[in-house]
Design goal:
By secondary structure, the protein is of the alpha/beta class. The chain contains eight helices and eleven strands. The protein has two domains: 2-119, Response regulator (Rossmann fold, 3-Layer(aba) Sandwich); 127-216, Arc Repressor Mutant, subunit A.
Length: 218
């Protein structure tokens, strides 16, 4: 899941991002509304964590722009305004959820995960292909009856390949969905992670490299 955090309190924004990355989410951070609109225009996000009182472009205007664009990104609005009329107003503007400051980080994570599930078409409880069963809710992978223990990025990469349902997924797409913008686009991290994933899945190999195009699980 890829998340954009738009929050002008830099310490809070960076703290949220650090915590979400520890939950195996890919996270980008911006500190004003104009930068948020710019990122939303070039990247596909599942969830936007949006401070309502952003500088340059107000959070309300960012939310309206998201709604008007028809983007699938879900908006979780953050604000210090806890009064009922303020919350109702935020939801009417187009926010999918609303959380007042201060908040418990565990609740923020739970709300983001819930919105992320709504941001994409409904998926089956578990993905199955080529003798592999991947359960996103339990973070479990089983191959031919054998439990496979994966690191978070390995699990995310395998999940993206299985969701592709046999089609080719480029290295750039994997980098975008499993990592975040701070990852060097010229890095070999996708290839290295794939090498580790293949080793853990064992023989026969199921992840196919398509030269010049990407990877797939036929």
């Amino acid at each position: 899941m890829r998340v954009l955090v738009a929050e002008d309190e830099r310490m809070l924004a960076d703290s949220i991002a650090e915590g979400l990355r520890a939950e195996a989410l890919a996270v980008d951070v911006v500190y004003d509304g104009d930068a948020a609109l710019e990122r939303l225009g070039v990247n596909d996000y599942d969830v936007l964590v949006l401070d309502r009182d952003l500088p340059v472009v107000h959070g309300d205007d960012v939310c309206r722009a998201v709604v008007e664009s028809g983007a699938l990104v879900r908006v979780l609005m953050l604000t210090a305004a806890a009064a009922v009329p303020a919350r109702v107003d935020g939801l009417r503007i187009g926010a999918d959820d609303y959380l007042t400051k201060p908040f418990a980080f565990e609740e923020l994570v739970a709300r983001i995960l819930a919105l992320g599930r709504r941001a994409r078409p409904a998926a089956p409880p578990a993905l199955e292909r080529a003798g592999i069963r991947l359960d996103p809710s339990r973070q479990e992978v089983v191959r031919d009856g054998r439990y496979v223990r994966l690191a978070r990025k390995e699990f995310g990469l395998l999940a993206e390949l299985m969701r592709a349902d046999g089609t080719i997924v480029s290295a750039e797409r994997l980098l975008e969905k499993v990592w975040d913008e701070h990852t060097d686009p010229f890095t070999n991290t996708v290839r290295v992670t794939l090498m580790k994933l293949r080793r853990k899945l064992g023989e026969p190999q199921v992840i196919e490299t398509v030269p010049g195009a990407g990877y797939r699980i036929p």
